[in-house]
Design a protein that fits this description.
mainly alpha, elongated, binds protoporphyrin IX containing FE
Length: 154
């Protein structure tokens, strides 16, 4: 059964998405506000954070295709009363997709810029917007829209 395995991976990868995003933000803000030079490590952190987000996006699309919650929503639409059906079918995918696009645009814009301060600033601003959207769209255990566990085991 592939579905529970993908769910465990998607759940766990959220922590890597968040921690790599935080690391990129520390690099971005410390460089921007501290006016230091742009190091290879700053680039690596930015690229790794974007790649982990892309991986989560791909797994998310696969999960979307096989999730019984999503297929139930598209089958029964508005009559699917529990808010989580609508949440995963529309809100979660919409916000997460937008967030990863914003991070990708920010990362490639920062890559093309030559001024160190601008590179840091671009990373800090775009990734902050990305993080806020991700934090809103994660089904935290305390979320009224769709509550899911902090971690999942096999
Ligand atoms: C950075 C991006 C993303 C993060 C951090 C994230 C995080 C999560 C988390 C923590 C869950 C709960 C998993 C569980 O029940 O244990 C979840 C569920 C889900 N995610 Fe994502 N997600 C992201 C992107 C996406 C995208 C882009 C899609 C769709 C294309 C997607 C589709 C889903 C679906 C369908 C579920 C519910 C599956 C089910 O319970 O049947 N996710 N996501």
């Amino acid at each position: 059964m592939v579905y529970p395995i993908v769910l465990v991976i998607h759940n766990a990868l959220r922590w890597l998405v968040l921690s790599s995003l935080l690391a990129a933000l520390v690099s971005g803000y410390s460089g921007w506000l501290g006016s230091r030079s742009y190091q290879r490590a700053d680039q690596t952190i930015r690229v790794v954070a974007t790649s982990i987000a892309h991986t989560q996006l791909l797994i998310g699309f696969y999960l979307y295709a096989i999730s019984p919650i999503v297929s139930y929503y598209w089958r029964f639409g508005a009559s699917a009363e529990a808010p989580e059906f609508r949440f995963f079918s529309l809100i979660h995918i919409g916000l997460m997709f937008t967030s990863v696009i914003i991070m990708t645009v920010g990362s490639s814009k920062a890559k093309r810029q030559s001024d160190a301060r601008q590179k840091f600033k671009t990373t800090a601003v775009y990734f902050t917007i990305g993080l806020i959207l991700i934090l809103i769209a994660i089904p935290w255990p305390f979320s009224p829209l769709a509550a899911r566990p902090w971690t999942r085991g096999f």
